[in-house]
Amino acid sequence: MTNTAAHIADLRKSYERAELGEDASHADPLRQFDQWLTEAIAAEVPEPNAMTLATVASNLRPSTRVVLIKGYDERGIVWFTNYDSRKGQELAGNPYAALQFHWTLLERVVRIEGLVEKVSDEESDTYFDSRPLDSRIGAWASPQSQVIAGRSVLVANAARYGAKFLLKPPRPPHWGGFRLVPDTWEFWQGRKSRLHDRLRYTTESGGGWLRERLAP
C-alpha cells in the first residue's frame, strides 16, 4: 500500500468561505444557479462549466462522466454529445438523469435532477456550426464509447472525413444536444464543523418551487 492510500482517511478541510441562507437565496433556483455560475466564472475556478452527468442503464447500473454545459434557461440545462455513445443509449432507455457541478475553490456544489429530452435539430445545427473545425471533424471521426484497435483509427477517420468535407462538415445525424428539464435542484455551501448549508428546490403541483433546508 502506498503512503497516499494509507493516509487518505486523514485528509481534512474546514469549509469557511461563505454561507447560504434562505433569506439570501433566490426563490427561483434558476436565478440562484445563474448567480453561482457567474461567481464561479468570475473567480476563475478551473472549468466552471464542467458538470458530472449521471445516467442509469437498463440493467440498473449507474454511470457518470464529465460533460460541458452549453446553455441554460427556463427550459433546462443543455449539453451536446454523440447520441450513439453510452450516455446517449442509456438516456434513450431511461430519460431521467442527474447533473452535478463542483466548484471546489468556492466550496460549492449544485445538484440537478430531471427528465432529459433532445434539443431541436435547429439548436443542434446552430451549435455544431459554431464549433472549431477540428471539433466538427472529430464528431465524425470518433465512434464514441465503441472499442477501437488504437488511436490510429481516430487519426485515420479524421483524415478521411477532413478530406471528404473540407471546411464545411455537416452535423452528423448521430450528434446533437440534450436538455435536462429540472424537477429538483440542490445547492450545497460548505460550512465550518461539517454543518453545511443545503437548500433543495422541488417543483410544486400548482407551479413554482418549494424551497427546503436539508440537514448536512
Please provide a written account of the structure.
The structure is a single chain. With 216 residues, this protein is α+β, with helices and mostly antiparallel strands. The protein has a single domain, classed as Electron Transport, Fmn-binding Protein, Chain A (Pnp Oxidase, Chain A, Roll). The protein has helices spanning 3-7, 29-42, 86-93, 121-130, 133-141, 151-165, and strands at residues 50-56, 62-68, 71-73, 76-82, 96-103, 108-118, 175-189, 197-203, 209-213. Strands 1, 2, 3, 4, 5, 6, 7, 8 and 9 form a nine-stranded antiparallel β-sheet that branches. Strand 1 (50-56) and strand 2 (62-68) form a beta hairpin. The longest helix has 15 residues, at 151-165. The chain is globular and about 60 Å long.
Brief digest:
With 216 residues, the protein is of the alpha+beta class.
List keywords for this structure.
216 residues, alpha+beta, Pnp Oxidase, Chain A, nine-stranded antiparallel β-sheet, 6 helices, 9 strands
Explain the layout of strands and helices.
Layout lengths: L2 H5 L21 H14 L7 E7 L5 E7 L2 E3 L2 E7 L3 H8 L2 E8 L4 E11 L2 H10 L2 H9 L9 H15 L9 E15 L7 E7 L5 E5 L3
Antiparallel strand pairs: 1-2, 1-5, 3-4, 4-7, 5-6, 6-7, 7-8, 8-9
Helix pairs in contact: 5-6
